[in-house]
Write a structure and sequence with these properties.
Blueprint (H helix, E strand, L loop, with lengths): L13 H20 L3 E2 L5 E3 H8 L4 H6 L2 E3 L5 E4 L4 H10 L8 E10 L11 E10 L4 H17 L6 E7 L3 H16 L7 H9 L10 H7 L11 H16 L4 E3 L11 E9 L7 E7 L3 H4 L7 E7 H11 L12 E5 L4 H14 L5 E3 L6 H11 L3 E5 L1 H5 L2 E6 L7 E4 L3 H10 L1
Parallel strand pairs: 1-5, 7-8, 12-13, 12-14
Antiparallel strand pairs: 2-4, 3-4, 5-6, 6-11, 7-9, 9-10, 10-11, 14-15, 15-16
Helix pairs in contact: 1-5, 2-4, 5-9
The structure holds adenosine-5'-triphosphate and magnesium ion.
């Protein structure tokens, strides 16, 4: 049997890792500017946690979780999303007791879906959660933060914000009943998936991609008519901040989100540049979740970004700075029986010039083949060492990316010369 990776679980090759690091670094920097701190929690949790948090009748829990019994017979699941584990970790460690928290996390999530572009079975999210804050101010802050992030990444022209309010869970229960009544009377015109959802999770029907179902929904009861005054005010204040900050948005009354735990604000950042998997960031308010998981009541609001989709978008729009894929500044060419001297000189230079990234040629070979490697490495400068140079404590300095004659430099002057060259 040939050993292969699991379908929908990709390797991240060095070619792409620089873009991932650039994205992760940029997100972490922006989050830091808003005073969010990182939290880490396990990839495996009790299956029960996700059943209770995400909801028994959601696609995720019904058919997408990687669940198994461990050696003790406990049912465990690979996390399909981060909020549940984050809430569990915060509650268990007393982080939500009489205090507010602004947190973020990153890592792999697992869902047994049909793999396609932008949809994987192991994918990565960067999640952000704020706890202990009731008002629309924190919802707004999260949206300001994401808007700044898109700007920093230079993808702001390619994403649009959709928002909606789901009201309270009591509002939703009433709305659900009205929707079910309306749709039940027209059941035969619904697509198959929606017929099934009519019983299990009727609000998800609003999400249906089926044209006939969407047409049927045009005259269906509207969620907006069912939500209470407080939720309306909350939503209006959120919109007012977005208006004042000049962040454009679209109110999408059919935006309901796939997970059970949301209330009031929900939102998605969507792009048309990636085909069908266009949502790059999604979230909302989940005021009932902490209590639902056994903690003291504590409001929460958050979102998750899909890292793979953002990387696809960065590539698609060609906005990753050229310097990002570049990992070598200086290449040390060592010709002849001087490997020892070359390695020691390279390491001295690393001590003296900590910001210069140096690749030492290993494995010998002719001058010509080594210079070829130097060129391929992307380095701007090659340091050339042969027996003559070692004998006279000098080195050849060859500029690989500009028309400039090669220089012979005393080894004691190298650190100075290179530092000046690379800091200009
Ligand atoms: P979708 O509607 O695309 O299935 P979702 O509502 O299931 O998304 P969430 O659970 O809200 O997604 O997760 C937040 C983000 O994580 C999504 O907007 C998307 O960018 C990313 N994401 C979700 N599922 C996957 C997946 N299977 N592969 C890659 N990215 C994903
Ligand atoms: Mg999904």
């Amino acid at each position: 049997m040939k050993l292969q990776s699991i379908r929908g679980m990709n390797d991240l090759l060095p070619e792409q890792s620089a873009t991932w690091q650039y994205l992760e670094r940029t997100v972490a920097e922006v989050l830091g500017r808003y005073s969010y701190r990182e939290i880490r929690f396990p990839i495996l949790e009790q299956t029960e946690l996700f059943k209770r948090a995400v909801g028994e009748v959601t696609d995720i829990v019904e058919k997408e979780m990687y669940s198994f019994e461990d050696r003790n017979g406990d049912s465990l699941s690979l996390r399909p999303e981060g909020t549940a584990g984050c809430v569990r970790a915060c509650t268990e460690n007393g982080l939500l007791h009489n205090q507010t928290q602004r947190l973020w996390y990153t890592g792999p999530m697992f869902r047994h879906e049909r793999p396609q572009k932008g949809r994987l079975r192991q994918f990565h999210q960067i999640g952000v959660e704020a706890f202990g804050l009731n008002g629309p101010d924190i919802d707004s802050e999260l949206l300001l933060l994401t808007a700044r992030l898109w700007k920093t990444l230079k993808i702001d022209h390619a994403v649009t914000l959709q928002i909606n309010s789901l009201g309270t869970s009591a509002d939703r229960a009433q709305y659900r009943a009205a929707l079910v009544e309306y749709l039940s009377a027209r059941k035969d015109s619904l697509d198959e998936d929606s017929q099934r959802r009519l019983l299990s999770n009727p609000m998800r029907i609003l999400d249906s991609k089926n044209q006939d179902t969407q047409a049927l929904l045009n005259d269906a009861p509207k969620l907006a008519d069912f939500i209470d005054q407080e939720s309306r005010d909350h939503f209006q204040q959120l919109c007012a901040v977005l208006d004042a900050a000049k962040i454009s948005y679209e109110i999408n009354p059919r935006l309901v989100r796939g997970l059970d735990y949301y209330s009031k604000t929900v939102f998605e950042w969507v792009t048309t540049s990636l085909g069908a998997q266009g949502t790059v960031c999604a979230g909302g308010r989940y005021d009932g979740l902490v209590e639902q998981l056994g903690g003291k009541p504590c409001p929460g609001v958050g979102f998750a970004m899909g890292v793979e989709r953002l990387v696809l978008l960065l590539d698609e729009l060609a906005v990753v700075p050229d310097s990002i894929g570049q990992n070598v500044d200086l290449y040390i060419v060592a010709v002849g029986n001087i490997e020892l001297e070359a390695l020691v000189l390279a390491d001295d230079l690393r001590s003296q010039c900590p910001t210069i990234r140096i690749e030492s040629h290993c494995g010998g070979g002719s001058f010509k083949s080594q210079i070829k490697r130097a060129d391929k490495s992307g380095a701007a400068v090659a340091l050339i060492l042969g027996e003559d140079e070692v004998g006279s404590a000098t080195a050849g300095v060859k500029f690989l990316r500009e028309e400039k004659p090669q220089q012979t430099v005393a080894q004691i002057d190298l650190a100075n010369l290179l530092t000046n060259y690379f800091t200009d």
